Please model this.
Amino acid sequence: NAGVTQTPKFRILKIGQSMTLQCAQDMNHNYMYWYRQDPGMGLKLIYYSVGAGITDKGEVPNGYNVSRSTTEDFPLRLELAAPSQTSVYFCASSYTTGQGNSPLHFGNGTRLTVT
Amino acid sequence: QQQVKQSPQSLIVQKGGISIINCAYENTAFDYFPWYQQFPGKGPALLIAIRPDVSEKKEGRFTISFNKSAKQFSLHIMDSQPGDSATYFCAASRSNTGKLIFGQGTTLQVKP
Model:
């Protein structure tokens, strides 16, 4: 049982480059989330999705885009990478809204450096 | 109004001691308060959670205390063990939104 799988684990980008962070879950969860984690700042919600074809912005969506064409996959797209996007990115999923008996299941993260 | 403030930023406790981490929130519409535990190189994992209709919830050595009037909640780790060394995050959300707002995190080190 793989859970939430994120690829790649590490990536270095040059300023202005683009990339897609991949996230896949095999738990048939309908809710999926992207967070970024910066030292001393906790986790900030970038985008989330309540099901295939439905996405919405979180706290810090600028500079990112998402799509949700299937229940399993929720890729995060960075266009025109900037040093401020250097962070650790976590994808998560949950069966419902991530409350009560439906906690968020996180992947192991992608560490991105933009230089 | 969306912030969750967590303290301390770091904590060192001797084995067998009590670790206490505090959080405060502003939005009175929040009605779900989980704590997540994160080990290096891993994603966070749910540790324990509480709703505002109770003042305390205990699971093993981990206890959440909740003070609705003060808009504060805390995590107590009794008989702290070196294996508890990790980063702990409090969080809060409104029902049915799926948007967890996280605190800044506390790095706990339990010395043997």
